[in-house]
Amino acid sequence: MSRVGKAPIPIPDNIKIKYKGRVITVESKKGSLTRAIHPAVDLKIEDGIIRVDVVNDNRTNRALRGLTRSLIANMVTGVTKGFERVLEIHGIGYRAILNGNQIEFNLGYSHPVNFDLPEGVSATVDKKNVIRLTGIDKELLGHTAASIRRLRPPERYKGKGIKYAEERIQRKAGKTGVKEA
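Structure (tokenized):
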């Protein structure tokens, strides 16, 4: 049984938290995040700590408790430190160019692919093949990184495509070319 939901969330001094009408708002100098809270769980904010409690103790509500606790902890971490996701582009002639709030990809197609960054996510391109995405909303950042990766997923034979920096592509052997007699 997971005990994630029972762990308290410490509130740093430099952020403000408002909880009113089942909606929590976490603010700091980096930005503001808002999320609606499920009716099966309740929040208690006191003495610089957030605690997540369940209304009825059953399996579904305990799962929602752990989920809610993780989401709120990610909101607090996002507005204090922020999140970063790194993508790498592999392939001859594959590259990315940052144009304001848009990234132009050359990925072996007959045309360049333009990707508009959502509001709240910023990017930098290093050496034309490393993309660093940063933002305060972990969910939006992960969705954006997955959308970029989906433009040209890494293939198994040569390893060409867009992959996460920590991702390891398990390569497959090609054909052996043995003729049968």
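The domain at 9-80 is CATH 3.90.930.12 (Outer Surface Protein A; domain 3). Residues 13 and 48 are 8 Å apart (CA to CA).
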